[in-house]
Amino acid sequence: MNKRVLVIGLDCAEPSLVFDKWADQLPHLSGLRKEGIWGRLESTIPPITIPAWASMMTGKLPGTLGIYGFRNRKDYSYDGLSFATSLMLREKPVWDYLKDKKSIVIGFPPSYPPKPINGELITCFLTPGVDSNFTYPEDLKGEILGRFGEYLFDVRNFRTNDKMWLRDEIFKLGKQRMEVAKYMMETRDWDFFFVVEMGVDRLHHGFWKFFDKEHRKYEPGNPFEDTGIEYYKMIDSYIGELIDVAGDDTMIMVVSDHGAKRMEGGIVINRFLMDEGYLRLKSHPEGIYKLKDAEIDWENTTAWAEGGYYSRVFINVKGREPNGRVLEEDYEKVRNELIEKIEGIPDHNGNPMNTRAYRPEDIYPEVKGIPPDLIVIFGDLYWRAVGSLGFESIYTFENDTGPDDANHAQHGIFILSPHEKNGERKGLHITDVAGTLFDVYGIEPEGKFMGKSVIREVENEQE
Ligand SMILES: [Zn+2]
Q1: How many A from CA of 172 to the centre of ligand 1?
Q2: What is the pLDDT of residues 393-406, one digit of tens each?
Q3: pTM over 0.85
Q4: Is 9 in the same domain as 44?
Q5: How many angstroms does the Cα of residue 158 sit away from the middle of ligand 1?
Q6: Ligand 1: distance of its center to the CA of 98 in Å?
């Protein structure tokens, strides 16, 4: 078995597009599949960039990581949430085990601020900007800026109606990321190479309604009808170049941290909590407003929530939160009642919507840090959670953080190539990426490791 591995991470790459709808137009991705093991890759709950990539590369679930989203509670105060950084990631990713091998890591979230690595690292899309120290070693930064000009971490304002601008920015981001990866592959010795490309995610959020005929806002013949496939084709062509540079002795993996699907609308979760008497405000600002800009009557508030692709619901517990009111002995009763009510919310037409509200301890083998009391996935991810208030009802079809037509989907993509026992595989989980890499490199993982080796499973099966 060869021990050099190239992992190409496409944030949000969607299996129904890569394996089905556009497969004929993506020769390199389809070629890798033909000669390899592939399938839909089940993401973490929640299926969000952070913690999903971290789970993929550590083999640990979000509860073990103590990272439940982009932003996490740092204590039980009402001060809101703090953004995830590399410093919060205490479990070892694959490259931290590869002490005698050289690793190159580009764009892994969360990797800012950069941590030392046996090799080189460029930080992720959560990097404040090119003025910050975004590489390890530090002097790699000068080389990258000298060669590529301004380094693009992300398209910052991707929730915009200026679609011409957005399209150009996403293409620029993807092109540069792949060029940087190619340059690093060509100019360095490496045993493990991992690059994460964010453009696919931004493309989905910005352009989904233009190419998905089932989207409620789809308009036939719109000027961005082909933007989606054009972007995937560009990435596919770069994948072809990276495979060539990597050479025949390299195992190639192409993976995504989650998929994407059309967004039907949003549930104004805090409005629901208010209507049901769980959340009380002392004053209501005008128009649409954020919960943090309202004066909350904490003494009379039982629960409040954060919005996003999923919702986090927090219970105001006496002795835990500063002005907690739910007694410890009533906690489970209140939580069960919330689960029942939230899961029972019908859609705007009165139909059941298949919402799930999870207790963290039910979905993770251990729960570290400060988890939400409930993790809510609305309408099988066809609906997002809207944290703002001031809407007419609990249903909204405009996103409170700007135009966004896609939500995340629970499954991303997995391709491992080449492998002689090629073909589609079911039941793949995001932690299996680490499981497979650890197997390839002969690593014994530490702690609550969840991943299994896909290669070992395939090879152990009877013909
Ligand atoms: Zn993502």
Answers
A1: 18
A2: 999 987 677 778 89
A3: yes
A4: yes
A5: 14
A6: 25
